[in-house]
Amino acid sequence: MNQPASLINARSQGVFVISATPFTDEGALDLPSVDSLTDFYLAKGASGLTILGMMGEASKLTDEESLAMVRRVLARVAGRVPVVVGVSHASLDQVRRLSHTAMALGAAGVMLTPVAGLRTDDQVQGYCAAALHQLGPGVSVCLQDFPQATGVYTSVAVIGRLIDEFEQVVMFKHEDMPGLRKLSQLRAAEGSGRRRVSILAGNGGLFLPQELRRGADGAMTGFAYPEMLARVCRLHAEGRAAEAEDVYDAYLPLLRHEFQYGVGLALRKEVLRRRGAIRSAFVRKPGPVLDAADHADLQWLMDRLEARIGLLPQVPPHS
């Protein structure tokens, strides 16, 4: 068993990087690249890691590969930061088994997303409540709200009821779009006596400065320049919001490009490959493959970004 840095909790903050899952050019799980990618994220200022998320191609992994990924990342992190494991699945038995195994191996918590096909508030709450009952109070949970990917809308009322009923819900991954008003409403409810939870922003970081202004505690996303996310969160926490937005603006063209639905994962993995974090940018099928024009666009944006980074005040990732 690996010792977690700490369990995720209502005060968790910073940048929990959503990790890619590295494969070889032939499509096999690349465990040496899991090590180098983990080292890369930590060196770039990650406060925590989240593995087996949608960006991590969790649905394309076998059960054995999922466990191998969990074991390898936890061993590499060695308790330095919390690791959250995505456990979403149509089978509640599978959710329970993976969650309890991950926690026993040293995970700091799990991330749960309502499964596709849920249409009403009662259905969403019923599924989440059933899953949380299966997990039990010993498993700290990040509840993910990502309707663009799942087709499931989770209302503020349902989120509030789940927070009220289940103490193990300690974190909320805010990924609705548009969703700033939802974030504000969740924070306002705390002013009326509701228990606080940590709120981390997703969507590639596309709205991060505004989400921080609305009360987000940080980010949980996988932009291939995580040092930017870490620096923006740090500057904002220091009360330097304008400087944070200046840093963010320098990276925005590439962040926006990487955020494209349908091809974004391939772009992100190619950036990670070019930055030396992984050996191959292979995306398992069904998944996108970049062509020559895609590579040219990406190189243009990365070159422009490097030039703009050179104009920013230089500070180390952990200062």
UniProtKB/TrEMBL annotation:
Pyruvate binds at M220. InterPro entries: Aldolase_TIM, DapA-like. Keywords: Lyase. Pfam families: DHDPS (PF00701). GO terms for cellular component: cytosol. SUPFAM superfamilies: Aldolase (SSF51569). One of its GO terms (molecular function) is 4-hydroxy-tetrahydrodipicolinate synthase activity. CDD domains: DHDPS-like. The keyword ATP-binding does not apply. The keyword Lyase applies. Belongs to the DapA family. This is L-2-keto-3-deoxyarabonate dehydratase. The lineage of its organism: Bacteria, Pseudomonadati, Pseudomonadota, Betaproteobacteria, Burkholderiales. The gene is araD_2.
